[in-house]
Amino acid sequence: MVSRVVVGAHYGLGGWLVQRISAVVMAVYTIAFAVAFVAAKPLDHAGWKALFSPGWMRVATLLFFVSLFLHAWVGMRDILMDYIKPTGLRLALEVAVILTLVGYAGWAFQILWRI
Amino acid sequence: MPDASLKKKRPLWYNLSPVNLPLPGLISILHRISGAALFLLLFWLLGLFDASLASPDRFAAAKATAAHPFAKLVLLGLLWAFLHHLFAGIRFLFLDVHQGVDLPAARATSVGVLATSLVLTAVLGWALLW
Asked: Are the beta carbons of A45 and B52 separated by less than 8 Å?
């Protein structure tokens, strides 16, 4: 009897799942934000700022941004894998995308917690 | 004996231009293009969001930037990109669980995605940008 450990069939499943879960988080936030926006109808800076001042709203918005950046990573990785054939160039672009998105995450946190 | 007539027909040239794509294929490539566009202009959007929350002065400056006709056009394009990406994405989630995979349903939902995102872009663009 040959006993083999089958591995590797799940390569890419993590990214696939992250893409779907982050998409659902963003869709739910979009609906919640639309409701909050219509309810508050912020017209000036004070009203706009007030919309984002509750702690839960900041946490929800940060969750949206984190989902956005994870989602963008999976999508951009897919695009780069499809169109950029030279391995070195693709790796360089992938690193650039990752660094950009990690930077954006820091920026988003700063924007929300400076309010 | 191998059939010589089959060999003569090669190479095959498929027209892969998006204009000739079947409707579900058009939805798919537009999903990719809209996603890439949103990623590429994320820097600008985050900058506007940053300014809008920073101070009344920078809020006014961001508002003035967004009021420029060219900026309005770009924002309208991004609004469409977001809405198309959202609705096409919801369609793909249903396809993941094998809902709407037969051809008539796939075509109908494609028309639905295309039309809903275009109409909502017009309505929300009018309400928010003009």
From this structure: yes
